[in-house]
Amino acid sequence: MEYMTVKEATEKWEMSGQIIRRFCRQERIPGAIIRNGVWVIPANAKRPDRVGQVVSDAVELPPLAKKLVRQKKKKNFHGLYDYVQTDLTYSSSRMASNRLTCQQVETIFKKGKVSVSFEPMKVSDLVEVLNHCVCVDYILDHVEEPLSQKFIKHLHYQLTFGTVDERRKKVTPGQYRTKNSYRTEPFMSPSDRISDKLKVLVAEYESLEEVDRREILDFHVRFERIFPFEDCNGRIGRLIMFKECLRHEVMPFILDDKRRSRYLESIREWDNDPGILSEVVMEAQSRFDAQIQLQMLAEHRQSFLPVGFMEDEL
Asked: What's the pLDDT tens digit per position in 46-76?
């Protein structure tokens, strides 16, 4: 069977991609399936009728975002929210040379404690992990909010506030690089052009009628090349990607440290070969999708246990 993408369906049916994805989720487009983290639709599918239900649904969060927010509010530390907080924080921080283990990150998140280690711990590693957990909560609380420079700056403020680098004045939370920056990356934009370039980037992105994985990755690459902040650009960029995947109902993904070299190469080669980054991301989407299925099985099993029963009692 031949399939078309959501983007192709928007042109064929003259409907927004957000509505089409909602119809797919509601099983109102027969044969629509998720492939490689995105919806695909049978090429011969008929245009679904728009009914009044769409108007009321438009204000609702996408289902995955809704689930994460619900678990966050209930402090359900054994659900998908727990996994996202721990794995996203650990993986993204590890890419930035944070040396805490996944178990230590999980303990910090769940209990606010630090597990014993035979190696000295950097204070900055601990503070940055705590701050990153706050940032994950922030993007979940603002999933539907359009991207803006104000949002990006606030995300950076929360990530870097109270760190050792802030105390040493190596980084200013929520502020772009200045001409006094010590960074000398060959690709980064001049400090006096950061605001203008981000303004254009955000405006172009928010004006898109259809946002899928390709558009989110393109935004990420262009953001990283602007290199707006003195530090933590990669972590901010990856947090934004996760938020936008939830917002536009694209399968989210978490890039781990094992793919760091390939990930950095893909950013450099994006203009010549966007397939490199797409390949890395599609693999990560498959892992995240598997985790979602695992969590669904765990929730199903939990529904058969007596009320108040704790698995630790086994």
From this structure: 888 765 444 444 447 888 999 999 999 886 6
CA distances (Å), origin 260, targets 78, 94, 95, 283, 291? 28, 9, 6, 13, 21
Q: Mean pLDDT: which of 12-26, 41-55, 138-152 is highest?
A: 138-152
Collect all residues with Cβ–Cβ distance below 8 Å to 110 and sequence separation of at least 6. Answer: 77, 82
User: How wide is the angle at C-alpha 262 spanned by C-alphas 261 and 268, nearest 5°?
Assistant: 95
Beta bridge partners of residue 39, listed in sequence order = 34
Matching residue, tokens 């899928």: 212
| Tens digits of residue pLDDT in 87-139 | 999 999 999 989 999 999 999 999 888 877 667 788 899 999 999 999 999 99
Using the predicted structure, report yes or no on whether residue 251 has a pLDDT greater than 90. Answer: yes
Report how far residue 227's alpha carbon sits from residue 313's, in angstroms, rounded to the nearest whole number: 50
Residue 91: burial class (beta carbons within 10 Å; 0-12, 13-18, 19+)? buried
How far is residue 22's CA from residue 210's CA, in Å, rounded to a whole number? 13
- Cα torsion angle, 185, 88, 280, 17, sign: negative
Q: What share of the chain is helix, strand, coil (3-state, %, to 5)?
A: 60, 5, 40
Which residue, among 242, 147, 244, 139, has the nearest Cα to 203 in the 3D structure?
Answer: 147
190, 227 contact by CB (below 8 A) = no
